[in-house]
Write a structure and sequence with these properties.
This protein is an alpha/beta fold. 40% of the residues lie in helices and 15% in strands. Helix 4 packs parallel to helix 5.
């Protein structure tokens, strides 16, 4: 199994894990709107224009106020949205939260928790896709040990959680690119896999511990990638997004 940061460029992988799902290649790039306010998020969306069609919104925007109004405006622009809240509470509360989110046109919502929590979310999801969180890309083996699991590998933890999520009715998982080949080998192509922690080779410096580059993520089996800072902090965010889209097109374009 591949296990190294930005290793695994396109030419060094075979095609067996490359996603065959009918997804518009441009929609495979999800840009993280991790900004302090909806106004800043909208400025970024305006800057990116038609280079990006799918956006992730998380806790920072939710806490700033106006998150759902922003989602409506993004939908009015023809954009897809992914709400990354990592819902974690008693099952009844998580189920109620998911019920309140369905019908808003949100493509995916993330949920974090045990079987009962995931089951409650799936029972209320409607047309919204439920993505189970496996292990944060900021985690390494030491962090897992700190959680009281000193003898469990990250790969085993991710695969165990993904297997249960699929059995419980989740549509997919969030996973580091490091673990995706094993997910595909053990669970097949049915589940949707979204890979964060993407760092183009030239942007290798970051605070995430388990990263891969654009091509490696897809060769290893990702359906979607999430890119944040490498685009937001680029001197020309639109140009950076377009460059990533070109890399994706080379993999999936026909």
């Amino acid at each position: 199994m591949p296990n190294g940061g930005n290793s695994g460029a396109a030419g060094s992988e075979d095609r067996r894990w490359l996603s065959e799902k009918r997804i518009d290649p441009q929609q495979r790039l999800i840009v993280a709107l991790d900004t302090p306010s909806p106004a800043e998020a909208e400025r970024l969306v305006e800057t990116l224009g038609n280079a990006v069609g799918f956006y992730k919104l998380g806790l920072e925007l939710l806490a700033s106020g106006g998150c759902f109004e922003l989602i409506e405006r993004l939908h009015a622009r023809g954009k897809q949205t992914f709400l990354d809240l990592k819902l974690f509470d008693v099952p009844q509360t998580v189920g109620a939260a998911v019920r309140n989110l369905r019908g808003r046109g949100i493509a995916f919502v993330t949920v974090h928790g045990n079987d009962a929590i995931l089951r409650a979310a799936c029972e209320q999801k409607g047309e919204t896709g439920i993505l189970a969180v496996t292990a944060l890309t900021s985690f390494d083996r030491a962090d897992i040990a700190d959680l009281g699991l000193p003898n469990v590998s990250l790969a085993d933890l991710v695969c165990s959680r993904a297997r249960r999520a699929l059995q419980l009715g989740c549509d997919g998982v969030i996973s580091s690119g490091w673990e995706v080949p094993r997910l595909r080998a053990e669970l097949g192509q049915g589940l949707t896999v979204v890979v964060p922690g993407i760092r183009p080779i030239e942007d290798a410096a970051n605070d995430q511990k388990r990263t891969v580059d654009v091509e490696a993520a897809f060769w290893r089996g990702a359906d979607y990638i999430v890119v944040g800072r490498p685009i937001r902090q680029a001197p020309d965010p639109r140009q950076k997004a377009q460059a990533i889209q070109q890399r994706i097109q080379r993999l999936f374009g026909h």
